[in-house]
Design brief:
Length: 136
């Protein structure tokens, strides 16, 4: 399925292919990667969710709101499944960009002044996730 999407020009579901070595530092995952899905969806991330809440002093409302934003990431993942042509794939890319922008806008509203700290926390957490995935 991924090959089909890439052949159709849908690039929103995979990181761009680059010539960077595998040891390159991970990039900022927000808002392009499904970080909320990974953070709130995996049982192995429960401790990280607690750490996020504690370190950033997030309220229960803020945490619940971030969990709800995860649904938008799932919607992005489903968008490309029906793309049959290059034109449809391009339309999907436009929708994906809009959904990612909306996810970021909502996160800014939810977190307020804590948004920059959230972004910094996510970069560190994502880098640790990437490093773990590269271990044999």
């Amino acid at each position: 399925m991924l090959r089909l999407l890439l052949a159709l020009g849908v690039t929103a579901f995979a990181a761009p292919i680059t010539a960077a070595p595998i040891t390159a530092a991970p990039t900022d995952p927000w808002p392009g990667s499904p970080v909320l899905t990974r953070l709130f969806g995996l049982p192995s991330s429960r401790a990280e969710v607690l750490r996020l809440s504690t370190e950033l002093h997030l309220s229960a409302f803020q945490m619940q709101s971030l969990r709800r934003l995860r649904a938008g990431e799932a919607q992005v993942a489903r968008l490309g499944e029906a793309a049959q042509s290059r034109a449809q794939a391009q339309a999907v890319n436009v929708q994906v960009a809009a959904l990612r922008g909306e996810k970021d806008r909502k996160a800014r509203v939810i977190l307020g002044r804590k948004y920059p700290a959230f972004r910094q926390w996510l970069r560190g957490w994502w880098a640790a996730q990437v490093a773990k995935s590269r271990q044999p």
